Each structure stands twice: as C-alpha cells, then as structure tokens.
Amino acid sequence: MEEFLEHPLLHYPDLVLALLRIGAGGNGTLEQAANRLRHDLAIAHERPGITDEHLLAHLAAARHRLALAGLVEGVHGSSFRTTERGRRVLAANPLGVDDTTLLEFPEFRAHVRRLKRASGVVDPVDREYQRGFAAFLLGRTHADNPHRSDTVVHQAWENGWFEARDVIGNGGK
C-alpha cells in the first residue's frame, strides 16, 4: 500500500472515482478502470513502480466497498455499472470519494459494524453511538447531544441518533 500513498493519482479516492466513472459509462471492468488510471498517470508524467496485478487488486477491493454501499452493481462476469446512487455520489464528489462518503449509507455502516463485531475490536465510541440511537427512541432531538461538538463522542452519538432516525423514524426506508 505504501506505493499507492506515494502517487497522488493512486490514492483510494482516485481509485473509487475511476471505478464510478467507468461504471457510469455502462458496463465497466476493472481493466478499464486500470487503463483510465494509467492514462491519468501518463498525463501527469507519473510512473509508479506497481504491477498490474497489484493495481487490479486495489481496484477490486475498492469496487467491493462501492458495491457494499450500493454505488456499483455487478452486471455479468466481472462487469459492473454505477447505480443511480453512485451517479449522485459522483456528481456531489467530483474530486474523490472515500469511506467517509460511503459511511453515509446504512448498508455500508452495517458492513463496518459486522466487521468490528467479527474482529472482536472494541470501539471506544460505540457506547456513545448506542446512546445516540437510544436517545432517538426516547424521543430526544439531535440537539440533545450531551457532548461538545468538537469531540469524536459527539459525532458517535449523533451518528447513532441519525441511524435510528433513518432506520426507525422512516419506517426502515
């Protein structure tokens, strides 16, 4: 992964953009996304020392995360296309998409929670997330957040509150 961090056009948000753009044109493939990245690198006179296999592996991982968030969908074989949700995200984030954007979608948040539970890692802010979720159920508003707004626990509480609102407050829609 170090070599990806050293090349501005190979950061995760750039991989995601390449995938969303290729998929927005119809049925796309990882190879087409890799070709787009190689083209962009050539224009910038960048020549990263990475193998095609390495690039395709990173693109496959990014495509998997996009699929979990509902931004791309498989078509047939290894082809994929950008969903309507993916097109909206692409239009709203023309300079890059990362996990902070993907976390806006309940399907991706559920995936992250499953991974945390499976790994046994205890998230120190998980308790505040659960408290925020419960606060919504108790009829509190998001303005009732008891934490300073510049803290991670404030954000965790708020994320829990909004998750409850999105899942329960909208009838699970």
What does this structure look like?
The model is unreliable at 1-5 (pLDDT under 50). Strand 1 (72-74) and strand 2 (80-82) form a beta hairpin. A two-stranded antiparallel ribbon has the order 1-2. It is elongated, with a radius of gyration of 19 Å. It contains 9 helices and 2 strands; from the N terminus they run ααααββααααα. By secondary structure, the protein is mostly helical. Helices cover 61% and strands 3% of the residues. The chain has 2 domains: 2-97, Winged helix-like DNA-binding domain superfamily/Winged helix DNA-binding domain (Arc Repressor Mutant, subunit A, Orthogonal Bundle), CATH 1.10.10; 122-169, no CATH class.
By secondary-structure content and strand pairing, the structural class works out as: mainly alpha
Specify Rg, calculated over alpha carbons: 19 Å
| Average predicted confidence as pLDDT | 84
Task: Report the oligomer.
Answer: single chain
Give a short summary of the structure.
The chain has 173 residues and is mainly α. 61% of the residues lie in helices and 3% in strands. The N terminus is likely disordered.
List keywords for this structure.
single chain; 173 residues; mainly alpha; Arc Repressor Mutant, subunit A; 2 domains; two-stranded antiparallel ribbon; 9 helices; 2 strands; 61% helix; 3% strand; disordered N terminus
Question: Topology of this structure?
Answer:
Blueprint (H helix, E strand, L loop, with lengths): L1 H4 L6 H13 L5 H14 L8 H17 L3 E3 L5 E3 L1 H9 L6 H4 L3 H14 L6 H12 L14 H18 L4
Antiparallel strand pairs: 1-2
Helix pairs in contact: 2-3, 2-4, 3-4, 8-9
